[in-house]
Amino acid sequence: MCSSDLAEVPEEERGPLQQAFAREIVARYRGRIRFFQVYNEDWLSHVKRARVFFDQTAFFRELAEANPDVKFGVSDCWTLDGTSPPPDPAETRARYPGIAFVAAHAHRPRRLWPSPREMVTNFDRYTDSGVMLHLSEYGIDSGEIEGGYRSGTWDEQRKAECFV
After folding, report:
1. pLDDT value for 46
2. Chain centroid to CA 158
């Protein structure tokens, strides 16, 4: 069910519909897809159209327990430069029991070339936490390179080097 269809449903009926849709997707693709992002922009940058109408912690636990062979995670606009880092792994596991990964929308800042030090400072606490890190929505805008690690103007060669 798309969000525009959900807008026509009374709020008290939306939660069960959202849960049923998520269960249906997992059942349909289980065995073919190993990683499912359960929530997007729920922790840091929640947007109105992405609102969840049920207890997210209980539902995440339910999905993880019912599907032990599937890796469930969440994604949000956590930054590569550390200004909005992912939450502490213990907080993440408490909010999303059974979580396998967090995915950072690695497009903020949009012209940043992060240094290895920034990346380690931002993500190192997830080392040995039992929660994997994924980078998603990674893209670089044209223009001047931001941050102090590299300088110049983004071109295709520099973008490729940064991605690597």
Report:
1. 66
2. 25
Q: Is the pLDDT of residue 1 over 70?
A: no
Q: What is the pTM of this model?
A: 0.86
Phi first, then psi, for residue 96 (nearest 5°) are -130, 80
With contact defined as beta carbons under 8 Å apart, do 77 and 44 qualify? yes
How far apart (Å, rounded) are the C-alpha atoms in residues 107 and 92?
A: 21
Question: Which amino acid belongs to residue 157?
Answer: Q
CA separation, residue 113 to residues 86, 98, 129, 142, 148 (Å): 18, 33, 26, 12, 8
Return the number of other C-beta atoms located less than 10 Å from residue 155's C-beta.
11
49-59 per-position pLDDT tens digit: 778 899 999 99
